[in-house]
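## retry 2 of 3
previous attempt timed out at serialization; input unchanged, resubmitting
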Amino acid sequence: MATEPTRSIEEIIAEDGRYSLEAVQFLREGLDFTVTKLHPDITDESGRRHVSGAQLCEGLRQLALEHWGLLATSVLARWHVHSTRDFGEIVFLLIEHDYLQKQPEDCIEDFDNIYDFGQAFSHDFEASWDKD
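## retry succeeded, writing output
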């Protein structure tokens, strides 16, 4: 049974101090985007809707490009997000405060070096949902 968060995201972000509220909001939007792309047939909240760190990073990459195009790196940098590890740090901060859940095999290292931001947000980057 999942535990309910006891503090607001705003409080958690203010105390943590590493990332902006916009970065967290973008990550949550990106998680919804990624789950919808990878599990379009699961509409029931109780259904397994887990995505890997690499899959989430790819979904965030695609969503950032949709929102900001080639300015994505600049927008994310303004929010102190410079690498896929930063996405993982936000995910695990939300897990720690009961806003997200993880599988036993999930770890922060799942977000290490998935792609280089300078390359990933350029015209000629090739990515795949199949990375795990």
